[in-house]
Amino acid sequence: MSTYNINNVNGPANLGDHGRIEVNNGMDAAAVLRVADQLVERLRGENPALVTQAEVIQGELVQAGQEGRPADRGRIRSALETISIGVAAGSGGLALAQELGRILGL
């Protein structure tokens, strides 16, 4: 079995052993946070039981920004999956959850 170490790759993806990959499809952190805020507000009206999951996403994005680190994609993905399962098909909450997933490349 072969192991490949990519150490010095230049380009927009910044891949490497210690490279940082962020997929946000051209949106800045403030725009991503606005979508998360919209998701929280939408779920308050559509499905209050899922607001906690939306707040997990919102909180992770805020904390990552404050700490200057990438957001915990696993934590966000898990919350988005829970929301996607719990909301009605065709709802605004589902559309926002899917948009966040798309923006973050999840």
How would you describe what is shown here?
By secondary structure, the chain is mostly helical. The chain contains 4 helices and no strands. The chain has helices spanning 29-46, 51-67, 73-86, 92-103. α1 (29-46) packs antiparallel against α2, α2 (51-67) runs antiparallel to α3 and α3 packs antiparallel against α4. The radius of gyration is 16 Å and the shape is globular.
Search tags:
mainly alpha; 106 residues; single chain; globular
Distance from first to last alpha carbon: 29 Å
Written as H for each helix and E for each strand, in order along the chain, the element string is HHHH
* Oligomerization status of the protein chains: single chain
Helix percentage: 55-70%
Q: Any idea what the shape is? A: globular
- Put simply, the count of helices is 4
**Sheet with the most strands, sense and barrel status:** none
Number of strands: 0
User: Whole-number radius of gyration?
Assistant: 16 Å
- Find the structural class using helix and strand composition: mainly alpha
Q: Outline the low-pLDDT stretches.
A: 8-24
Beta-strand share of residues: under 5%
Average pLDDT, all residues: 79
Topology overview:
Layout: H1 29-46, H2 51-67, H3 73-86, H4 92-103
Helix pairs in contact: 1-2, 1-4, 2-3, 3-4
